[in-house]
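Per-record layout

source: Lysobacter auxotrophicus
name: GNAT family N-acetyltransferase
length: 154
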Amino acid sequence: MGRAGAPDDAVTARVRQAELGDASDVARLLGELGYPCSRDEAAERIAVVRHDPRQHLLLAEIDGDASGLISLYTLYSVVHGYEVARITGLVVMPEEQGKGVGRRLLREVESICRRYGVRRIEVTSNASRTEAHAFYRQCGYIDRSLRFVKALGD
């Protein structure tokens, strides 16, 4: 292992807030995650996040190329009595996986959460994404509860 638990082939990824001009990269990354959208739809989503102080959309870049993204929102939890955060998406391009990009994105989100006084970060992952589950566990996240979903299509 390389630095601080990163793989030996870890690369240095630059992480920054997504901008409207990143819409094509965001669309490509969301498609890789299994949520395809057009460049225009991605631009709309970036605009929504940029105007909401409780949301963050970060891009990881390697040599100027988008290699991953993570999205996060924070909220006050009445149940817990403090601020919590939820990671709503995390994806790293297949050719960049295993190089520390996902860990770098998680560290950045954890830093943001500490600045905002967030005391708990939650992430959900489709039951079929066993590699993602192993990744989250390796990064210190633990299994806590089931998630139930009901689509309101009326």
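summary: The first strand starts at residue 14 and ends at 17. Helices lie at 23-33, 39-50, 101-115, 130-138.
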